[in-house]
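Per your request, structure below.
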């Protein structure tokens, strides 16, 4: 229920941002940005760093508010986790910028998909079971909350640094029923993009 309200609030904020952009004069900020980046997600529940690559598309509603979508591919097999992870985030970025750099906050709901079942570990009848025994093949809700620092070497290029907390809502079956809990996972990205 909390996450449904959080998604609703993000969507309402996005809608308000769109109306705000129509009401005020537009700057000469490029409307669309496409970029690629390297990312590293620290999976706190597994105590592992999860590096990967990704792509991002940003639509600038005005100089201060943008809508963006990001997809990340995290291919490395971990000690407790088999297969790869895929992450999708879609939301809003808001802040301040001038001709040379910008500072923003971001709020982006999405998902992370764990592709396969766990590597051979002791998946015994314990309560609660190890998360690595239950996470394979699932797609938990994720929410990225953090900050962005951008540099603009030219009108059409951007260098971007992201730092945030990617909250993942896990589910597992316990003797008393299904358990849901949220894990906080630091995530950092660095990338380049083209603005037009």
């Amino acid at each position: 229920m909390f996450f449904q309200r959080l998604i609703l609030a993000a969507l309402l904020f996005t809608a308000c941002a769109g109306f705000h952009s129509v009401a005020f004069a537009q700057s000469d900020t490029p409307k669309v940005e496409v970029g690629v980046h390297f990312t590293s997600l620290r999976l706190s529940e597994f105590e592992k760093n999860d590096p990967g690559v990704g792509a991002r598309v940003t639509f600038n509603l005005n100089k201060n508010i943008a809508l963006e979508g990001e997809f990340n591919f995290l291919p490395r097999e971990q000690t407790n986790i088999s297969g790869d992870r895929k992450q999708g985030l879609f939301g809003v970025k808001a802040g301040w910028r001038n001709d040379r750099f910008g500072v923003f906050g971001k709020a982006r709901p999405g998902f992370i998909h764990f592709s396969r079942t766990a590597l051979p570990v002791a998946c015994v009848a314990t309560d609660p079971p190890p998360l690595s025994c239950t996470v394979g093949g699932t797609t938990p809700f994720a929410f990225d909350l953090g900050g962005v620092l951008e540099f603009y070497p030219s009108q059409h290029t951007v260098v971007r640094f992201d730092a945030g907390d990617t909250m993942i809502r896990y589910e597992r079956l316990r003797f008393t029923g299904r358990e849901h809990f949220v894990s906080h996972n630091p995530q950092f990205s660095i990338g380049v993009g083209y603005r037009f």
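The mean pLDDT is 85.

Regards,
D.
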